[in-house]
Amino acid sequence: METKSNVITVQGLPIVVANFNWSVGFQMERFLKALGNKKILSAKCPECGYTYVPARNRCGKCYARMDEKDLVEISGKGILLSYTRAYVELDGKGNWIDLKEPKIIGAIKLDGADSTLFMPLGEVQFENLKIGMLVEPVWNSELKGSWKDIKYYKPASA
Amino acid sequence: MRNTAIIGCGQTPHRARRRDVSVAELVSEAVSAALEDAGITMKDVDCIFSGNMQGFGGIAQPDLWLGDWIGAPGKPAIRIATGGTTGGSVAHGALYAVASGMYDIALAVAWEKHSDSKEAGATTGLAHVGMGNLFHALSYGLSLKNLIATTAVGAAAGVAVYQARFYMHRSGATIEHLDMVAAKDRRNAAKNPYAHLRWPNCQPEDIAKTEMIAYPFRYGHVCPASDGASCIVVAEEKLAKKLCKKPAWLLGLASYSDEENQLQSENYGGVGVLDPSEQMGCRVSAKKAYAMAGITDPQKEIDLAEIYQPFPSQELIFAERLGLFDDGTAWRYLEKGETDINGSMPTDLSGGVNATNAIGSSALQRVLECALQIMGKAGEHQAAKPVHKAIAHGWGGVTNYITVTILGDSPR
Amino acid sequence: MGYIKDEIPQTMMVEGDWQVGAYRYKANRLLEEYTQGLKQKKIIGSLCLGCGKVIVPPRAICGRCHRRQEERREVSPIGTITCFVISPPVVRGKYKLFGLDPVDTGALKEGEILVPCFVRFDGSDSNVACLLLNADPQKVFIGMRVKAVWAEKLEGKMSDLEGVEPLEK
To answer: Of B2, B201, B306, C72, whose CB is crowded by the most CB atoms within 10 A?
Structure first.
């Protein structure tokens, strides 16, 4: 075995970055554009009925195809299944960042869909969160047709 | 080992940029096509083997992410990555699973989506493979000039340039022969709707007009970076006979790996790697596969070959290493047209990797194309002669990975 | 060119990056040994006591025998070209690697012709990748005898071995 003094550390060059632009496909494009209109679209499988958010073109349960005709708008409201509070974040370059304000993240079971979404939670104190509480989306004032159009989820007025 | 056959094949059209689909949609297109061709549903599949190169598409562990796009839930699903031979190893995984008696029906799917990367060609994937070594050498003062010269210029075509030089040096083949191979491959690819570089009636003069990259490779010689996926369904004997009119039976297979720094040391045979076209691994794998298949005279008994040839020189080099021609003579048969669609040893009638290269998928496509030829389903690029036994080859890594698969029209 | 072209619709793209440089690798000290040898105009390789092969630069383990490589041998600065590539003249702006242009960074000169080659130094059983300098690209051949070209200032770096040049002028 190598002894400790026989091992050196080689630092990678920070300028070396590989860039990507991932195509999203038609169903996801429809989903993202709908966000720009404050709409949340699900894809409902015509064979088995399993409903996905975000919309996709293949059912993971029964392998049937789904298309534009299978898109169903849902309210965007849901039930809080679980939640946590994060104190640190990663910067994508191997470094930890201490957050000035802890971020609350919730797992939300959307009404009308079989999917769960992970979303930031806002306008609520951590101590007041309860599993099973109804939550709803809060939209950004500027809408671009992207995931960032949903600012966060907050407790719903029912 | 029990009898095993390929009963269904599916591919997507391979193009420069399939920006109409996400990679998951691309892969499920091929899987869906293979299931339809085999006449089964996802429920019938017992296990799944998937694979693509790491890094090129920018998705770590894609098999986990697109698991439910390839029918993985509820089933054993394993991802295999072996460089350029990924597709061949994925096929072998499915063949091992069924031939061993472990499973009855296995699916093998492989893909690559280069267009998701912003870097030209396959730069990201190729570069990141050596990143650790590169940073290490740089930290010891490797000059930038040396780095760029040996990696960028050499890597423009990579080790294949050195390999081609050696082959031409010892066999007497010329750059005109490379033009002939590339033209033949792109001409035949025009008969294959799933291929990428399709040039109807392409002639060697058309290729000779293209610019030189690094002697002896011209732009017209080099493989593309394609987006695409391919998939095969493998079944055991009873099911194969029930489900498929003319299955493509597994006769023999072998694969081989070696040290990565092969160009700087020596190969498995103990021979110092003076000659990168020597490819001991290919010879050893072919020998093992032929023994398993009971083939004693490949030159007479093999009807068709699908060789992994991103560069035209490799079609000649590997054909010899697979025992299909005597050493240094492949180019003579090329001249006579024997490796073309009407010839006695048709090679890469699909266009091969030279015309279509979605890296993860490429070696699987060689197996798939041999299966299509045996089943008689190759359409316009079907060989003129009847195909009873075909050999599919895969090459990858830094000359150090090989997969060989031999298929036939009747079981062992 | 006569390639068949298809019109393929484009869908939205999501951007992202992979910080390939954000890694801290661990390595042994063999390159240090090698570069310290270069500083003294010595090319060092490891000798395997199992198979007798000498590999340059030194390796930790023999790939065949799996023995640890404790022995070292100095090989000759004279060797033979085993293969080579001739680049076309360098053009600025033609190729970029991770957003960097080789001419802009000062690494290469416009119009330069590079001949990367593999050299087997006498006494070694492996090939070393380096540049062929001071040679007419048209006159290079496999089997050509060459000798090491050392940097003017030796600093214990890989670049101390600048390349090789033909033995005979």
So the answer is: B306
